[in-house]
Amino acid sequence: MEKFSSDIRTVSQRIQQLRHSISTEEATKTALIMPFFQTLGYDVFNPAEFTPEYIADVGIKKGEKVDYAIMEEGKPTILIEAKSIREPLTRHDSQLFRYYGTTQAKFAILTNGDMYRFYTDLETPNVMDTVPFFEITLSNIKDNEIKELYKFKKQEFNVNTILSTAEELKYLSAIKDQLKSLSQSPSDELIRLLIQECYQGMKTQTVVDKFRPIVAKAFNQFINENMNERIKHVISGEPETTSSGTTQEHAGASDLDVETDEIDLPSQPVIETTQEEIEGYATVKVLLGSVVDKDRIFYRDNASYFNILIDDSNRKWVCRLHLNSLTNKYITFRDEPNVRYKINHVYEIEQFTERLKVIVQSIIMPNE
């Protein structure tokens, strides 16, 4: 799993490097899509396993072809419709929908080389669902998504195993999106429900509008307080570990100081370590407690970022927290020092649990 995670990260970096130089569908297939399926363990140059231009006759139309079909014992198991990386996927699912019903394939994938949408037939047998049960953006892939993607690896692929979790994935994603939306802009119905016990007056529209920012703030404070409780467990020596995902934005940050030590010069501004940075440090200690002795995890603060490292050595830095801005907080990682991952609160660091573990293991394994 660790090697697979590392390989997928390599594909992710490849997309970031090449996307602006790719302008056609064929270039997308060659440069991005085929390497992705190679990473999943498929022989993309063996037409008996990875068939290009697979014929999927639709009604009276003969000779209709889907871009690729992954074959098993001479039968298609996954259909793949490919588009250019410069094309959005919103207009193309109907084409894949037509192909799906004419074959014995149980899964279908629509991709532009960066975004991958995975479909099956949860609602009606042999009719492809209109909503994907799993969706990833490779250039911004999350640790929990890599775990799900691992099930599609050739050596791990099992139709029943994937189907057993497909429905949960589909509705989990939808509910998470809804919760995110509600936390930012609570609906009238939710506000009325939440203030039912604490506000005894009439729940008029004026009252609902008054409570809207309060409910949104309560959402965020509730999440923060839960994370703070976990931090207290760290201090008392009781580690906890969870994981999920986030967003990414690119930056021009440099990693030239990876191999150097910071030197405090008289002209430098006074560095003040904030409570938020300490909470971030404690959070990382929680997440890494199962792979490294917590006594080996240190931090060093400087004017531009808060460094978390192993054995108090800048040569063994793991991640850097950039928390000084009120609106532009982000984290960078040793394996991708030029890519910023935006976070709103330090508790969101737990979404990178698996990635942090892989980085630490790459640091300590040569010595242990």
Can you walk me through this structure?
It is built from nine helices and twelve strands. It has helices at residues 2-18, 25-39, 93-100, 143-149, 159-184, 188-194, 205-235, 275-288, 353-364, and strands spanning 50-55, 65-72, 75-82, 107-111, 115-119, 134-137, 249-250, 297-301, 306-310, 317-322, 330-333, 336-342. A six-stranded mixed beta sheet has the order 1-2-3-4-5-6. By secondary structure, it is an alpha+beta fold. Mean pLDDT is 81; it is low at 241-268.
List the helices and strands and how they pair.
Layout: H1 2-18, H2 25-39, E1 50-55, E2 65-72, E3 75-82, H3 93-100, E4 107-111, E5 115-119, E6 134-137, H4 143-149, H5 159-184, H6 188-194, H7 205-235, E7 249-250, H8 275-288, E8 297-301, E9 306-310, E10 317-322, E11 330-333, E12 336-342, H9 353-364
Parallel strand pairs: 3-4
Antiparallel strand pairs: 1-2, 2-3, 4-5, 5-6, 7-12, 8-9, 9-10, 10-11, 11-12
Give the termini separation.
20 Å
Mean pLDDT comes to: 81
Report helical residue fraction: 25-40%
Question: Which sequence of SSEs, written as H and E, runs from N to C?
Answer: HHEEEHEEEHHHHEHEEEEEH
Please summarize the sheet with the most strands. Answer: 6 strands, mixed
Structural class: alpha+beta
Read across the widest sheet, the strand sequence of neighbours is 1-2-3-4-5-6
| Number of β-strand runs | 12
Task: Give the overall silhouette.
Answer: globular
Q: Please give the radius of gyration in angstroms.
A: 24 Å
Number of DSSP helical runs? 9
SS strand fraction: 15-25%
Uncertain regions spanning at least 5 consecutive residues: 241-268
